[in-house]
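Module 6 notes. Inverse folding takes a fixed backbone as the condition and produces residue identities as the prediction. Think of it as a translation problem where the source language is geometry and the target language is the twenty amino acids. Below is one complete input and output pair. Work through it position by position during the lab.
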């Protein structure tokens, strides 16, 4: 149940009419002190639970989980995917080194005209 600002103002007006303006500070003081006591109890219980269970997520995370359990499942699946990807990268062979172009051991390009005298020389030697 959500209290809108209009509803809160109506409640304050009714309290003012019932209590009167002279008793209102006393009531406000009691409400404030009881609220403070309730917060202290909440903090003490939370600290005891956190001492007993150290891996417990933060209160904000728990509230987010309760509001959207699908979001929690998405986060858990993303964590599992990340772990699996890390394992695959760890166990995969190293990537091949990039090839240089042109390769170092490649012969120089041969000009067909420059080969011609060699061929003639070979023919002359064979004869």
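Target side of the pair, the amino acids:
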């Amino acid at each position: 149940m959500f209290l809108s600002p209009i509803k809160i103002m109506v409640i304050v007006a009714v309290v003012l009419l019932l209590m009167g303006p002279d008793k209102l500070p006393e009531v406000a003081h009691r409400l404030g002190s009881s609220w403070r006591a309730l917060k202290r109890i909440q903090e003490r219980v939370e600290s005891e639970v956190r001492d007993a269970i150290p891996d417990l997520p933060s209160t904000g995370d728990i509230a987010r989980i309760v509001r959207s359990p699908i979001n929690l499942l998405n986060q858990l699946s993303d964590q599992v995917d990340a772990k699996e990807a890390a394992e695959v990268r760890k166990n995969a062979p190293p990537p091949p080194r990039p090839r240089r172009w042109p390769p170092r051991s490649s012969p120089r390009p041969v000009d067909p005209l420059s080969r011609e005298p060699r061929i003639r020389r070979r023919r002359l030697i064979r004869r």
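Reference fact for the lab report: The mean pLDDT is 79.
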